[in-house]
Amino acid sequence: MMRSRMETYNHKSRTASVLLWLAIILYAVLLYRTAWITEDAYITYRTIDNFVNGYGLTWNTDERVQAYTHPLWMFLLSAIYFFTHNMYFSSIVFSIVVSLTAVVLFSTRAASSVRTAALGVLVLAFSKAFMDYSTSGLENPLTHLLLVIFFVLYLTRQPDLRGLFWLSLLAALAMVNRMDTILLFAPTLAWVFFNFKTWKAGWLSRIGVAVLGFLPFILWEAFSLFYYGIPVPNTAYAKLNTGIDAVSYAKQGLFYLKNSLFYDPVTLPVIMLGSLMPLLTKNWKRIPIAAGSLLYILYVIKVGGDFMSGRFLTAPLLVAVIAFASMPLTMPRRAWIGSGAVILALSLLAPYPSLFSDASYGTVRKGLIDEHGIADERAFYYKSAGLLRMHEGVKLPDAPLVTKGKQWQEKGISLESHIGFFGFYGGPKLHTIDSYALADPLLSRLPISKYPKWRIGHYMRIIPEGYRDTIQSGKNQIHDPNLAAYYDKLSFIIKGDLFSAERIKEIWKLNTGVYDHLLAAYQPPQMLQLSQADTDKLIVLPPTGAEVKLGRVAHAKKAYVHLSNNDDYYAIFLNGEQEVGNFAIPAKSGPKDGLLPHTIDVPDKAAETGYDRIVILPRLLDGNSDFVYALRSLQLMEKQ
């Protein structure tokens, strides 16, 4: 089969080969022009920095918590960072090299002809999602490379035990890189495993070889359970332990696909077309490839997609491209040219095509986050961490949270919600409590805050009373007795002697639900219920804030309130049970025991729809806060 593939190449015209390499060069140019690093990547980078500097695979150095979802990517970057000690450029260069390797390997080994290869590369180059996440600092490039190698082996070998081993090994490495990518590999692996008519190996031989191939993943899971105390990343608890119903997640997942269609008209149509072609043509060898792409799209819908537009669509796009580009397509030259023109035209329908991306990308801030919380993440962070910005003399990354992190290096403890830049530049001495719980082992197991309304991937937790003091002092001062008892067990696992027999027993108990009743019994602090008249006097607030009933549906466009000095707040506007808008109220500096007036600009949607309640919620951020919250005199400006 490999011979026929190469024979196809040898008989293609020089013109087609030139077009292919021009397409690859176009991809390389766009790769350079769109290269960037997202703030989220720096969550992993802090673990890398700790690891390289002898603090272990930790995020906060005083506890063992897996705040990253991509161990293989993390280890490879760690090896590079060990020599360079420059996280930004190490990640950018490595991502570019891996992405280019994947595209060239696809073009020369996976595609059935020069023309299908050229068309496939054009799809990838004109896909906004694929270009955005060919860098970014996240694991996508390595996932892409492993997918290409896997399907090249699948397409060029007859099923045998050696082939099954290598396919299993590549799937296992991909799972160590990101666990949920197994859905992309599973249908093809199953096809090879059960396609017993084409080979003579027995069931036990096949099972044994597959298990041997999956050893990297099995060993990682064993290590994770031993080292961290749980077999999955802490981020899984933070993002899946939310109490949000499956229907809400599915709706959000469909909004994710809708967002992709608007901002990136190439990606989703190609996924669907590329996945359906093997089915429509009954190309049995490629149907499992297409099935993996479709299966992953269903998974994306189920989990609600992501807050990063397109991030979860790059791998199924590549798989769909491999599915159709590896088929022996025969079309007239005019059809090939027309297909390329359609791809180009679709890409130009995007509001911000990658083809025109330059150093100014993202300077127009309008519309970066849609109404469902899905963001053009590259546009959001390109000004701070886009590669072309270095030509303007910007030291990368350049963001307020980078500066803040450096300022907090010696302060011991902090409370933050965006922990990437801040945590990395805060250094190993700073313990950061993550209110979104990605890096916090206790908060990730607690219910999410009712307000503000959850955004996909961002699930705020209310900090339990006494938890911050517990971290600061090293002594358990959590007020709720059930939660305090649970934290004692959890703390022993993540801070105790690794090789303690008692710790191993506690890991077993934690993972088998022995202590779940303690979490179930925890009673989080309740939000105060107030009337507007109640605010005529000083009200001391719990961390959960207060819901102020207005007694009417208001449409005022401005509100005024006195709030405790040095504290950040949200004002959240409700109409019935629906959140119709929110406004971030930045802290004002002053004496710690004083209050200062604030003007609240009511969001247009809230003013138009009307609102009958306003929630005043502390944002639980460090600064000069003493974590004592208060409000007085909430007033609406009815006449404007």
From TrEMBL:
<protein>
    <recommendedName>
        <fullName>Glycosyltransferase RgtA/B/C/D-like domain-containing protein</fullName>
    </recommendedName>
</protein>
<feature type="transmembrane region" description="Helical">
    <location>
        <begin position="261"/>
        <end position="281"/>
    </location>
</feature>
<feature type="transmembrane region" description="Helical">
    <location>
        <begin position="163"/>
        <end position="187"/>
    </location>
</feature>
<feature type="transmembrane region" description="Helical">
    <location>
        <begin position="137"/>
        <end position="156"/>
    </location>
</feature>
<feature type="transmembrane region" description="Helical">
    <location>
        <begin position="87"/>
        <end position="106"/>
    </location>
</feature>
<keyword id="KW-1133">Transmembrane helix</keyword>
<keyword id="KW-0812">Transmembrane</keyword>
<feature type="transmembrane region" description="Helical">
    <location>
        <begin position="207"/>
        <end position="230"/>
    </location>
</feature>
<feature type="transmembrane region" description="Helical">
    <location>
        <begin position="287"/>
        <end position="305"/>
    </location>
</feature>
<feature type="transmembrane region" description="Helical">
    <location>
        <begin position="312"/>
        <end position="329"/>
    </location>
</feature>
<feature type="transmembrane region" description="Helical">
    <location>
        <begin position="335"/>
        <end position="356"/>
    </location>
</feature>
<keyword id="KW-0472">Membrane</keyword>
